[in-house]
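2.7 Reproducibility. Because tokenized structures are sensitive to small changes in the input, we list the exact sequence used for Putative hydrolase YxeP, including any N-terminal residues retained from the expression construct. No trimming or masking was applied before prediction.
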Amino acid sequence: MVDVTKDDVTAARDLRRRLHARPELSGHENWTASVIAAQMRSAGAEVLTGLGGTGVAAVFHGAAPGRCLMIRAELDALPIPEASEVDWASDVPGQGHLCGHDGHMAILCALGCALGRGFDMGRVVLLFQPAEEDGAGALAVLNDTRTADLAPDLVVSLHNLPGLPFGQVALAEGAMGCASRGMRVQLKGREAHASTPEHGISPRAALAQLMEELTGLAEGDFPQDRFALVTVAGVSMGGTAFGVAPGSGELRATLRTLTDARMEALMAEAEAMARGAAKADGLGIEIDYHEVFEATVNDPPAVALLRGALDAAGVPHGPEGQPWRPSEDFGRLGTLAPAAMLFLGAGDQPPLHDPRYDFPDALIEVGARIWAKAVQLGT
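Resulting structure tokens (single pass, no recycling of outputs):
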């Protein structure tokens, strides 16, 4: 029996507010990780630190051998200024926990307190992953040689979702979140005096062409497998001098698909289009990718466990809300074991990444209750 008490939830709420007030960006979650590690040690866990950079894994052992369940939360915040007026609002200019990762961590910490008092069998690994927001953290954790020793049988996670009724869960097998990546196209021609632009080689026409043509690669209605979306995220050309006709430029676009296979095809189309435009205007070109997210797919065994836990916890659930267009770094963790993520309704709240967003404290008890039942059924 795993019993999360009111005291566990109250302590987790206070912890969340501390974390919320001091957000740290992807790959720089040093203070956050140290606080989480201390909390988990005080709960009686074996603690691994520095996992994949700043990650923390807290391992709890049951009274008898059994399966291993890994439950994952995220450490990082966003480079977005907070505009809420709560007493625990961010003290760090330009940064905020505006996706609810502070709440996800608090839920696991409440569960950790309960696990530390003992449970029947198996192992539970509470993974606090770094760098989810930029897509680098899960891969870094997987590349850490110590991760293989954790050997989970199932991997699960949750994400709060404003707009979904409070305490209701969205869960389904199959596609859960899109693959996405940032494509950067750098074009190089030749500068000229602004009075004689014909003496240079300008990227202007190619950039204008690509803004239209790349977005035209969009296809299909979400969530069909052929779905593809290209969003221009930024365009730049030249500098601040009025006397120079620029010879270089850059376009940044986000490619998004429901499946990894469709992403490969979309990349090939986008690259061919960019190289064709550069060649036509005599421009040099370099293409690279940033913030790479693989598609997140919910595996049937992990979904079955979560459905059982939700039923045991008395939490209403259904498939509405999955899949969603955003991306989730959780998808890579499916290489460790069958994996699934659920959405936990946050009710009438500002959207994720909105400067006014603040994770609702009342969700901590609901999330911890779900995970307690998952431990009982999955270990």
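Residues 39 and 109 are 7 Å apart (CA to CA).
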